[in-house]
Amino acid sequence: MDITLIVDFFPKLISYLHITLLILVAAVAIGLVIGVVIALIRIYKVPGFNQLALIYISFMRGTPILIQLFLIYFGLPTLLALVHIDVSRANPLLFVAITYGLSCGASFAEIIRGAVNGVEKGQTEAAYSIGMNEKQMMVRIILPQALVMAFPNFANSVIGSLKDTSLAFTIGVMDMVGRGNTLIASSLHALEVYITLSIIYYGVVICLEKGFSLSEKKLQRFEGSLAVDTK
Amino acid sequence: MIQLRNIQKSFGNQLVLKGIDLTVNKGEVVSILGPSGSGKTTLLRCINFLERPNEGQVIVDDFKVNSKQANKKEILTLRKKTAMVFQQYNLFKHKTVIENVMEGLIIVQKQPKETARKLAMEVIEKVGLTEKANAYPVQLSGGQQQRVGIARALALNPEVILLDEPTSALDPELVFEVLEVIKRIADEGITMIIVTHEVSFAKDVSDYIVFMDQGEVVEEGIPTVIFNNPKEERTKRFFKRINREEDNLESNLTNAI
Ligand SMILES: Nc1ncnc2c1ncn2[C@@H]1O[C@H](COP(=O)(O)OP(=O)(O)OP(=O)(O)O)[C@@H](O)[C@H]1O
Ligand SMILES: [Mg+2]
Fold this sequence. Notes:
The complex is a heterodimer. Chain A is mostly helical. Chain A has 9 helices and no strands. The complex binds adenosine-5'-triphosphate (ATP) and magnesium ion.
């Protein structure tokens, strides 16, 4: 093993970090929208949609992300071709964003639903007792508390997704791993490339964790443990 | 004026309220007493339809809600005319004291923010928590939280405030401050229906006492009559037991000292 190679590879690989982060941000954004919608469908048991939501969640849970990625990559163009939309030349990043978005959406939905159910019943009753309607109660009282409670699970899920993005290269996305593969091909030093990659991923995860735990403290100030004295 | 007519409520096949009639005049304080499980909480929750009665009518002023036909809009209107103070306070945890009090003013009554803030501060002052206006519920003692609960209800200027055992979750040394606040707003002529186990407080604050047992009103009347000359056997037994418990408590205390 050649340590100097790691130093050499590091800037080459990290210059593709933004692609990885882009995938992550897109996935989380799509996932949040899907997650909230699916969670609400599940909470209100919207007839018909509830069953679809259940199938969607259990499918996303029950299949590997790699298979989902291929399903979307090959399946979506075939589906869209039926309605005469040609996506065969679309950027593979698009398929990656959709796949990871769908995957995040499923886990976020369950996290949000759990958190909403976890909000004390008394909060709902207090909201109704002051004359709020269902929507005001949900938007003003329940969701804000639920999202804060959901935050730690949410953060875990995001970190999981970050690691999942390392599979994006399989459909030809040039992210850090994609670039790593080209480096391996040209240098024939696979181990050094993977060591460098692991260092970068680990570093990013550590930063994310730090950031999440700081925001968590901010968010949960009303939960007690960190009650700041206000006077 | 609040009127309940023939309020019936069952859970499954257990009839918990067996047709309750009650009239509360404007400015009156009515206390509901009765043994555990007699349906006091359920009755209170039927008044603002947190629990929908199976039968009967709730009338607040001229606004009449039939339990059977009531639609969402009527229930909302009814709730806007009432407010509730909960045994477990149920303050909005993610909001500060002043935000708790302002929430209904802004979101439900659509008052401008500044008006709401001013009104909220006045009410918060009334319950003696001006210093805590920007604290979160978790930073307050139980007694302080309950005073916020009262402020939240009071700010809405409802036709009636419903209080369900407002002090029974509190440590004994915090009961007094809450009862004092309730007494003060009672003296201001706010209409209240209070479920309580604090007999001496009920005696002191109420214009009218309702004694319930097993889903029925057993006896009702002005405090002096109900407490000094109850007619019904069940009422007598209830007070006897309560007195004995209080005596026990006192002798325990004396023994302890
Ligand atoms: N949501 C519910 N589902 C089923 N049964 C209920 C429900 N709420 C109350 N009950 C039953 O209705 C009866 C009356 O209950 P309620 O809480 O109104 O009594 P209470 O007079 O307030 O008693 P306590 O003094 O202990 O608070 C009880 O037998 C109780 O078990
Ligand atoms: Mg009760």
